[in-house]
Design a protein that fits this description.
Length: about 400
């Protein structure tokens, strides 16, 4: 497979591609050579920011423009988690639900009080005589599994992943997955209110919840975030296509991203859902179940013919995740319908019409906080002897 870029690299690569299309020379970083003044670096970054803002204004069409011709896909997208993965905290339903309440971490005793006012949504953390109060700016996640709160601190170009998260399967708050107990030491991740984030951390995290964000080197105070994963995050900027469509020449402007290429599709999904190129030894085995492309790539089904098995083989990439057992069983039977391809007693039984291939061959695995993910490593699972 081709090398899959990280979400941050993809964003920068897309920017380079757009600037090339517009005939504008752009470099992703300004090297600080001894003869380059701070003012020159600042001017370069300001130029990059202006170029990026110009691209946003002139090359992006917006979802409403796509809906005119692609109404079915647009309606499906509105049902999907991609369209509901980033919310201004003060505008969210969770903010109204938490207003005036408090949460106590059952493990380390931290207590968080919540208040929604005309100035925004605030979380105040109390522990061991310490009190920390922060305005919460964003709520990230579609609520299929969890929604985590994040604050942005423009004055320090930093952020905060709060210590509390809404856990959908429990319908209540819990510890943010991956965060440790607060022990009062000075480790950056071990703070009373949550995990401290650098500006790069914020951009990297938000890049999987936004259609576009900052230009290279742009401080968080000036970022124009565009929340949720909308049409042009996957299909590329389409204003020229829309203008051509109005002239009756839609096919004259071809997609920037060829999603009919299986490798391109897998690479696109892997930017956020993570494939083999994004998973290394620093990620514990217990954490890898949530990376669907990576797990799929471990499957013999995929390895035997990567072009025949991608995310869209089973999923409608525009719509919400289906829970129709028949849909998934039929996807399996596209390849596993002949006798020599099947080694499953269920297929010969009268019960097969209601059998669930996924339940046996892609069982749910529990992750942090009791969150469960369907394991996309397709295989024969032996409960006693281990996986095969």
């Amino acid at each position: 497979m081709s090398i899959v870029p990280s979400s941050r690299v993809f964003r920068l690569s897309l920017l380079m591609l757009l600037l090339a299309v517009l005939g504008t020379l752009w470099r992703s970083r300004t090297e600080s050579a001894p003869d380059v003044s701070d003012q020159s670096v600042a001017d370069s970054r300001s130029s990059q920011q202006s170029q990026w803002e110009s691209i946003i204004a002139t090359e992006f069409a917006g979802d409403d423009a796509c809906e005119v011709c692609h109404s079915e896909e647009s309606a499906a997208h509105q049902r999907s988690g991609h369209s509901q993965t980033a919310f201004r905290m003060e505008d969210s339903e969770l903010a109204r639900q938490l207003d005036g309440t408090h949460y106590t971490d059952p493990e380390d005793g931290r207590t968080v009080s919540f208040r929604l006012s005309s100035r925004g949504f605030f979380a105040e953390v109390h522990h061991a005589g310490r009190t920390v109060r922060n305005r919460v700016d964003w709520l990230l996640g579609s609520s299929a599994h969890a929604q985590t709160a994040v604050s942005i601190f423009p004055e320090t170009n930093a952020g905060l992943e709060h210590c509390w998260t809404w856990l959908a399967h429990r319908n209540e708050l819990g510890r943010t997955p991956g965060q440790p107990d607060f022990a009062g030491n000075s480790d950056p991740i071990d703070t009373c209110d949550g995990r401290q984030m650098t500006g790069d951390d914020v951009v990297h995290c938000f890049s999987c919840h936004m259609t576009f964000g900052p230009a290279p080197g742009q401080p968080l105070a000036k970022v124009r975030w565009h929340p949720n994963i909308n049409c042009e995050r996957c299909h590329g900027p389409r204003r020229q296509h829309v203008l051509a469509a109005h002239r009756g020449q839609a096919d004259a402007v071809q997609p920037m991203v060829n999603l009919k290429d299986p490798q391109v599709e897998m690479a696109l999904c892997a930017q956020c859902h993570r494939g083999t190129q994004e998973v290394d030894d620093s990620i514990a085995e217990s954490d890898r179940v949530r990376f669907q492309p990576y797990r799929l790539e471990q499957s013999r089904c995929f390895q035997n013919n990567p072009a025949a098995l991608t995310c869209s083989t089973c999923h409608d990439s525009h719509d919400a995740t289906s829970h129709d057992v028949t849909r998934y069983r039929n996807a399996c039977l596209k390849c596993h319908s002949r006798e020599e391809q099947v080694h499953c007693a269920e297929i010969e039984s009268s019960q097969f019409a209601s059998s669930n291939c996924v339940k046996c061959h892609m069982p749910k695995q529990q992750w942090s906080g009791g969150i469960e993910f369907v394991d996309h490593w397709i295989r024969v699972v032996h409960e006693v002897q281990g996986d095969q």
